[in-house]
Amino acid sequence: MLRLLLTFVALNAVLLGLELPRYAGLAPYWLAWEAVLLVGLFALLPSGRLARGLAWLAGGLLLALVVLALFDALTRASLNRPLNLIQDWILLDAVYQLVTGNLGWVATVLLGIVLIAGLVVVIWGAARGLYALGSRAAGARRVPLPLAVGLLPLAVGLLALGLVGTAAGMRDVAPAGTVAPAAGMVQQQIAAGQAAIAENRAFRARLQQSREQAGAQPLPGLAGVDVILGLVESYGVSAVFDERYAPVIVPGLESIGDDLDAAGLHVVTGVLEAPIAGGQSWLAQASLLSGLQVRYAGHYDALQAEPRDTLVQDFQTTGHRTAMLAPAIQLDWPEGRWFGWDRIVDKHDFDYAGPPFFWVTMPDQYTWSFFEREVRATSEDAVFAMLALVSSHAPWTPILPVLEDWDAIGDGAIFDQWADQGPAPETLWRDFGRVREYYAESVRYSLEVTGAYAARFADEETLFFMLGDHPAAALITGQDASWAVPVHVISGDPELLEPFRARGFVPGMLPPSERAEHGFDALRGWLRDAFGGAPGKD
C-alpha cells in the first residue's frame, strides 16, 4: 500500500505539472485522473513481460507529454501563445540559435544535458514505479483481493471518463479541483492541429486571390522621397501603457518629440497589430512588405514558394534604390534574397570594428550611422530601406549611452569601452525584476537613437517610420497583453503625413490606443492608396 501511495503521489505531481504552462504557475487542481487510472490498472496486472512492457510504454508516453509541456511553456513564454505542433516544429533550429546566441554553446550543451537527464529520470521512475505495483518478490504476492475488487470498477470508470474527457474537454466534465491533464493536452493539440490546417488552407487561398493585386505598382507620390522603416526590436504598446515601463518610455518619447519639433519635423503616431509577439521578426517584416499578415513560419514558406512582388518592387518601379540592413543575420539568408532587395547588408557586410554585446552583434547607433554613410549618402536615387534594429533584443545587457557626436562613430571601435559593462546574461536573468528594468532601458536606448537619427538626418524629402517589430515576450508583457505596436511617422513635409492622420494617427509621439484596428498587412495598401493613385487594401 505504501508503494502504491508513493507511486500515485509521484505520478499525480508529474501529471499536474503538465498544467503549469497554461497557468504560468501552479494550477488550481489537486488530482490528476490519469494518475488514479494508471495506478489502479497496474495494481491489477500480474507481474511479467506484459506488465513490464506496458510500464515502459506508459513511461514513454509520460515522457512525450512532459517534453510537449516544456515546449508549450517555452512557446507561451517566448511567443505569447500556446504550442501548435503543426505550425511550430519548424522553429526548433531558431530556438537553438536563440539560446546559443544568448547563453553560448557550452552553456546550451550543459543545459541540454541537464534536461535530458531529468527526462530520463521521469521515464525510468514512472516505468519502475508502475511495474513495481504489480510485482512482488519472485511474483509470489499479489494485491489483496478487496483492493483489486475496488480498483477494477474504478479503473473501468476512469477509463470511460478519460475517453469522454478526450472528446469533450476534461476540464469541462471533471469535478472541481480535478483534471485529466494528459487527455486535455492531447485534445488541445488535436484542436490546434485542426485549426492549423484550416489556417494554412486559408492563407494559401489568400495568396492565390491576391496574386493580381500583388503586382508591382509605382508610387509617384513618393518619387524622390527617401522612405525608411526602422523596426525597433520588442517595442510593443505595453512599453507605453504598462505602468512598469511607462515611467521610462513615455518621457523618452516626449523628449524625442521635442527634438523632432526643434529640427522642424512633424510626427504622427498610430498603432498596428503585429502578426506575432515575442519573436520571429522576419514574419513582421514579411507582413509589412507583402500586404499579407504572415503569422507562422509555414505561411512564410508558402509566401516564398514562388515569385511575388512586394513593397520592394513597388519602390523599385518608382525609381528607388532598395536596401535591407539586418545586423543580426550571420548565416546565409536566401529568404531575404527572395524579396529582391537591391542590397542586403548582413552582419558580415558592415565594417563594424567594435565588440558584440552578447546576442546583439552591433549597437543600433552604429547601424544608423552606417546606413547614412554607406547606403543613403552614396545613392544617387531616392532610397527605400528597412532596418531591423537589434539593441532592444534579449538579453538586454549592457545598456549603452547615446553618443552625441555621430561623426565619431566611424567603424564602431569607439564602442570598445563598453565591451565589459553591465551584468552578464546568466547573472541578470536570475532576477526577472531586473530583467524587466533592463528591457525598458534597452527599448528607451533604441528609440532615443532612432529618434536622434531622424532629428539629424530626416527632412522634407523623407518619410520615416519608427515602429516596433512585435511586442516583447510574455515574461515582459504578461500573457494577455496587446499585440499592437506603436507606429511613429516622421517627415519634414506635413503633407506626407496627412494620409496617416486620415487613418486615425494623432500628432505627437504617444499612441492613441492600446488596441489596433489594422494589422501590419495594411501598410502596403495604405501607401498605394495615398501615393500610388490606385485602389489598395484597406
CATH second-level architecture of the largest domain:
3-Layer(aba) Sandwich
Low-confidence stretches: 136-143, 145-150, 166-170, 534-538
Quick one: CATH class of the largest domain? Answer: Alpha Beta
Main sheet, how many strands, which sense, barrel?
A: 8 strands, mixed
Q: What's the name of the CATH homologous superfamily of the largest domain?
A: Alkaline Phosphatase, subunit A
Q: Identify the strand order in the major beta sheet.
A: 6-5-7-3-8-9-4-10
Distance between the termini: 68 Å
Shape: elongated
Q: Round the Cα radius of gyration to an integer and report it.
A: 28 Å
Feature tags:
538 residues, Alkaline Phosphatase, subunit A, 2 domains, 10% strand, alpha/beta, two-stranded parallel ribbon
Describe this structure in words.
This protein is an alpha/beta fold and 538 residues long. It folds into two domains: 2-198, no CATH class; 220-531, Alkaline Phosphatase, subunit A (3-Layer(aba) Sandwich), CATH 3.40.720.10. The chain is 52% helix and 10% strand. The chain has 22 helices and ten strands. It has helices at 2-17, 20-23, 33-44, 49-79, 85-88, 92-103, 105-134, 145-168, 170-173, 181-209, 238-241, 246-262, 281-290, 297-303, 311-318, 334-338, 364-376, 425-428, 432-457, 474-477, 498-502, 522-531, and strands spanning 31-32, 178-179, 226-232, 266-273, 321-326, 343-346, 383-388, 462-468, 484-491, 506-507. It has an eight-stranded mixed β-sheet with strand order 6-5-7-3-8-9-4-10. Strand 5, helix 16 (334-338) and strand 6 form a beta-alpha-beta unit. Helix 3 crosses helix 7. The radius of gyration is 28 Å and the shape is elongated. Residues 136-143, 145-150, 166-170 and 534-538 have low confidence and may be disordered.
